[in-house]
Amino acid sequence: MATLAGALGAPLAASAEGTLTAFTSGYRSLNPGVQSGAATGVPGSQIFAGLVLIGADYGAEPYLATGWEVSEDGLTYTFRLVEGATFHDGAPITSADVAFSLDVVKANHPFGPAMFGKVETVETPDDLTAVFKLSEPAPGLLLSLQPLLMPILPRHVYGDGQEVKKHPRNMTDVVGSGPFKVEENNPAEKLILVKNEDFFIEGRPKLDRIVFPLVKDGLTRMLMVEKGEIDYAPFSGAKPTDAERLEEAGGVTVSKDGYGAVGYIHYLEMNLRDGPFADVKVRQALAMALDTGFVARVLFGGRAEVGTGPLHTGNPFYTADVPRLEPDMEKAAAMLDEAGYPAGSGGARFGFTLDVPSWALQSHGPMAEYIRAQLGKLGVSVELRRAPDFGTWVSRISSFDYEATLNGSFNYPDPVIGVHRHFDCDNIRNVIWSNTQGYCDPAMDALLDAAAVEQDFDVRKGIYAEIQQKAVADQVFIWMPEEFTTTILGARVEGAPDGAFGPLAPWDEMTVSAE
Amino acid sequence: MSEPPVMTSMPPMPPMPVPEPVSPARQAWRMFRRNGAAMIGLALLLLVLAEAALGPALYSVSPDDMVWMPLTPPGASEYWLGTDYVGRDLLAGLIHGGRVTLIVGGSAAALTVAIGVLVGAFAGYYGGRIDNALMRVTEFFQVLPNLLLAMVVVMLFGASLVNIAIAIGAVSWTSTARLTRVEFMRLREMDYVRAERSIGASDARLIWAVILPNAAPPLIVSAALSAGTAILFEAGLAFLGLGDPNAMSWGRIIGDNRPYVLDAWWAVTFPGLAIFLAVLAISLVGDGLNDALNPRLRER
């Protein structure tokens, strides 16, 4: 009876059992192959499948690929695909689609070259075998083959000669390969995904529907979570104070798990080209003046991790063993004296404009206020400049037309993707989140190049330790506390993905129990 | 049957007291004083102005310093009104912010009046094509959504206090212009204006020295009310995150602390109350002025 009514389209309470309500903060594309970011990545990882999944220990697990072999020299990866897997329109998923997807991502994704630059060709000896041929070893390759970073796209849809980045099928009539299909896509209101009955893993997904209502305002989102109108809120935007309140009220879980692979860090970026910031002594003095431990403890309620360097504390290559400067205002003042910025009349030394991005204002706002107040005590006057929108900030920073900015970026599991870009001499480009500050040191480049091809994990970890130590010694950035990234889970939700990519992985084992 | 005539002897009339000549300002003050609400408004306004003028000197805590744990409730520390989301003293913010808010509101209102009077005076005085042209411009500004236009101006030119005042002034002068125009159209045909014109007074003299002073009363009222609107505007812009991030203002305190409203009611309530009281005071005074300066109401 209930099935019949459901089929007739009557929204019965009984059929709501398998409906999960999440949220979206707004997206312009549902194709994570050409658009990075969590807003596209969260639904995108449901719509599209990848070759592998990444477990909590950063190990690759079979997904669309049932198995793979890596040659001794690390230059050949052979993947075997699941038999009988189909796209949402019924067409079979073949190795040709894998090869096509890799080309698309390599050419269109912001990290395409970093992730797959060394993949020269993908050979397709038969429909279910894909052979990746590399020019150099790429130790992090498997990490980039999960659905967020390399979704398997249908060649028969996107291979029609149109530019994939602007392809209309990224938003309308999306044909995916993953556990959920797009039922309704109205980016101004909500996105509804429904179960893919023909998913290649038997018995999954377990949910019938996922609804993503558009909720841009963080405060509204928290109220909806509190009222139980959102069951599952990845990248919830909850502030430490919200987390405290929600935990006190009970009923929901605020979890910091599952963001290690993304590795969301924050830092004060100084334009190193000229002015006071060209001098490492000045940067070190500011680093000593800014007590980031205080910021984490007091402004973020002790819930944010104190960042120590370019790697996120959850990254497998992270080391805490870096030459970090202890907060010391007197020493900082002495160093500024030494660097040629003595306190003038009224204690003034120099001043700069600090750009405050329009995004992640819940973190950048308090940080900016702290920096202004704290450096003011040192005689360094900070004028805040708030960007009215994302585009304005991006154009200021990517054209190097700034003195300093608060910034933040994602590590992604392999540092080659999210870390190298900030330090490589060749990556000083007019592109946001590249080496916009203009840092260049051949010694650093040599370390980065070595780390990129080293296949032995422990040796590689050693190289990354050196990279972190050098970045901190050169004080390329002043690292601020890491983002307090959370998922909020309602009491009815079970089986949320718990791998390194957290919610940026398929939600095919999730269930929502009845009230 | 005849009754004795009742003799009514008229006592000699005492000489009528000649009323002292009363200046219009004094007369208006008398009217104003009788208006209870207006007097309350005036008292409030003086209080707000005194706070903005003297407060920062009397209360030495800096509004920018982080002095205590963030979001400390009122009464829980030596900072009476509690602290905001980064631990700044809310009372210091209110006191220093009042000055900024009033200066921005005041200068925006002055700009509103300046543009409005200029446009309205020329349109009303000259009429014809000039009137037509100026009124089309006025209508153009009138149909644009004010807050949106101000937001665009601030976004394009940056959120400094000067730009914010200019943005507010630039979008809210239309009603003053219309009011001035109507007054000028009415007054330019008055006998005393004609007389002045007939003895060869220049246009400039007629506009600024003859008509404008006589058109002043409604304009004063409108100026007072536009100061209130300007304060609300400034608060609105700051609330939307378009305030000057380097100057504490009431609107900015609300805007900054809005995300924390579920945890800290005080951080948005007190600046909200301050704005409410300041605008209320200005409105009451404006109303009182309106009554006091309106000759038709003087007989009441």
TrEMBL record, chain A:
Tell whether Transmembrane helix is among the UniProt keywords: no
Using the record's annotation, list all stretches that form the Solute-binding protein family domain.
61-427
Q: Which UniProt keywords apply?
A: Signal
Q: What is its main location?
A: periplasm
One GO term of the cellular component aspect?
Answer: outer membrane-bounded periplasmic space
Subcellular location field = Periplasm
Q: Which GO terms describe its molecular function?
A: peptide transmembrane transporter activity
Signal as a keyword of this entry, yes or no, is: yes
GO annotation (BP), single = peptide transport
- What does the sequence similarity comment in the record state about its family? Belongs to the bacterial solute-binding protein 5 family.
Q: Which protein are we looking at?
A: Peptide/nickel transport system substrate-binding protein
UniProt organism field: Albimonas donghaensis
TrEMBL record, chain B:
What Gene Ontology biological process does one annotation of this record name? Answer: transmembrane transport
* InterPro entries registered for this protein in UniProt: BP-dependent_transpt_permease (IPR050366), MetI-like (IPR000515), MetI-like_sf (IPR035906), OppC_N (IPR025966)
- Where the record annotates domain ABC transmembrane type-1, the positions are 98-286
An example of a Pfam family matching this protein is OppC_N
**Which PROSITE patterns does the annotation name?**
ABC_TM1
The domain of life for this entry's organism is Bacteria
GO terms for cellular component: plasma membrane
Which UniProt keywords are given for this protein, alphabetically ordered? Answer: Cell membrane, Membrane, Peptide transport, Protein transport, Transmembrane, Transmembrane helix, Transport
Task: Using the UniProt record, give the first listed, main subcellular location.
Answer: membrane
Bilayer disposition of the protein:
Multi-pass membrane protein
**Where exactly are the transmembrane stretches of this chain?**
100-126, 147-173, 219-243, 264-285
Where is this chain's protein located in or outside the cell? Cell membrane
The entry assigns this protein to a family as follows: Belongs to the binding-protein-dependent transport system permease family.
Protein name per UniProt? Peptide/nickel transport system permease protein
